[in-house]
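Researcher: Good morning. I'm working through a list of sequences from a screen, and I'd like to move beyond sequence-only analysis. For each chain I'm collecting a predicted structure so we can compare shapes side by side. This is the next one on the list. No need for commentary yet; just the structure.
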Amino acid sequence: MDLKEKIRDIPDFPKEGILFRDITTLLKDRESFSFVVEELFNRYHDKDIDVIAGIESRGFIFGSALAYRINKGFVPIRKPGKLPSKTVSAEYSLEYGTDRIEMHVDAVKEGDRVLIIDDLLATGGTMEAACKLVSGVGAKVVECSFLIELGFLNGRDKLKEYDIYSMITY
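Model: Good morning. Structure tokens for this chain:
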């Protein structure tokens, strides 16, 4: 299946000069969404994974669907102020600014093997911060998984110590 056909390009969003890859068109298409979840299932169902972490917000979509499909727990990694219990946080740079993400301190435990999922690998800052959160509490990042990779932004450079999987590369 050519998933690129199901992704809409939005020029100048969220600011001028950025070409946004809108996956809502893929998500609303039953066959495409199912295809993505099954591809992820095929890749991860027999891997030694204890929990799946998804980065807000589109990482929640694929991460929770996969967690359900392979019978694992799901951990949300969120924007600041969204989690009710004690958190750890990390700041990161985007291609158009800076931000922070947080995770509950007890979301994963020392020695857990964690798959981290997000929809897009751009500059790598968000995933790098997520890996720091997971590693910082003593868990191991099994792999960083993405639906889309914007290869021309060299996000892999920030993630050299981790295994990376991308379904689509632009």
